[in-house]
Amino acid sequence: MTEHIDIQDPDDYSPEDLMRMAEHLFSPLTPVAELERICMTLAHLPTQEAQDLLARFQASPRAGEVAWLECAVEEGTYHLLDPTNPLEEREYLTLKVIQELADEVTDLEVERNQTSVARKKGEIRLSVLQALADAGKVHPDEVMGCGCVIERDTDRIAELDKEIDLKEAMIAHLRASITTPKYRQADPDFMRHVHWDA
């Protein structure tokens, strides 16, 4: 494996340098060691252009020749998103909050789906109990008890819908509040890999 390198200064790399790297990355004649060296450099070059080039290479037929490419892409994204001033720090944290809210929405949607299925099953039970009650085989209280469970599930679904709507509105508002281009374009899911000890 190629030796790990420090974060690179974007000023040390011209557009022509990136074009040369691209030519080598997509050439079938480039040795694997050179592919690895270029990928390592791109992973430590915190510019959108470098990360885009790395992502393009990841989708290429030769990507499998660099065993640690997925790690390089993640590391490159991490370096690109690393905040450098107070505004970026706030917007970086905003991405983390968006990611956490999105995870909460997913959990609420799972609960909503489960509750919806439980309500539908309850409706089937209720229809059977009602038929049995009409035939005199079940006491009417059984029907009423089942109806209460369905009503409880219906109320919970309405509560979950409100919670989901609120969290989705928060996500939309937070997304719109981000002004730094690198954070506006970033996928908040990446923040799942970012943790603080606080």
Report on this structure.
With 198 residues, the protein is an all-alpha fold. The chain has two domains: 10-81, no CATH class; 86-191. 70% of the residues lie in helices and 0% in strands. The chain is built from seven helices and no strands. The chain has helices spanning 15-25, 32-43, 48-58, 69-81, 86-134, 140-177, 181-184. The longest helix has 49 residues, at 86-134. It starts with 14 loop residues before the first helix and ends in a 14-residue tail after the last helix. The mean pLDDT is 91.
Write the layout of secondary structure elements.
Blueprint: H1 15-25, H2 32-43, H3 48-58, H4 69-81, H5 86-134, H6 140-177, H7 181-184
Helix pairs in contact: 2-4, 3-4, 5-6
